[in-house]
Amino acid sequence: MSVTTLDPTTALILIDLQKGITALPTAHPADEVVARGAELAAAFRAKGLPVVLVTVTGSAPGRTEAAPRGGGAYPPDFAELRPELGRHEDDILITKRTWGAFHGTDLDGQLRRRGVTQVVVAGIATAMGVESTARAAHEHGYHVTVPVDAVTDPDPEAHRVAVERIFPRLGETGTTAEVVGLLG
């Protein structure tokens, strides 16, 4: 489990590192995932590489008992990005209503316009937003890397399965330090 290479046009995609999601209980401390996300974002920005900040503002229209419904169901600051991410004016902001960041958004177009060929995906929740986005990135033809110390999930078993069984099939896995090291 190590990251061996990053394409010259790699983008960072940070999933749901927002106040409402990071306040939920998770298998690994959300504050540590946010800190690693901030470290990755700073390293990508220093190299002039795209940083994508994804937030979720609702849920898909299918029947589910897992999420609140309706605009008033979430607290007013639910979708606010955590300030530690140091949002920059050049960051790409994506708002989604499904688990994955590609479906129903212009993420693929944003990345293709910038010539991106690889994505590093991190955030919360490992087996939902991160995995869905990583799967879609793979299906869209991007090389995929997941720094497994920069993801967490409310369900420890779902987190483990995604990290051990799913992500290695989609691309490379490793650590935040490995990704930052490859950025030079």
Automatic annotation (TrEMBL):
An annotated Gene Ontology molecular function: hydrolase activity
UniProt cross-references to InterPro entries, sorted A to Z: Isochorismatase-like_dom, Isochorismatase-like_hydrls, Isochorismatase-like_sf
SUPFAM superfamilies: Isochorismatase-like hydrolases
Keyword Hydrolase among UniProt keywords: yes
Segments crossing the lipid bilayer: none
Keywords linked to the UniProt accession: Hydrolase
Domain annotation Isochorismatase-like: ranges: 10-178
UniProt protein name: Hydrolase
Higher taxonomy: Bacteria, Bacillati, Actinomycetota, Actinomycetes, Kitasatosporales
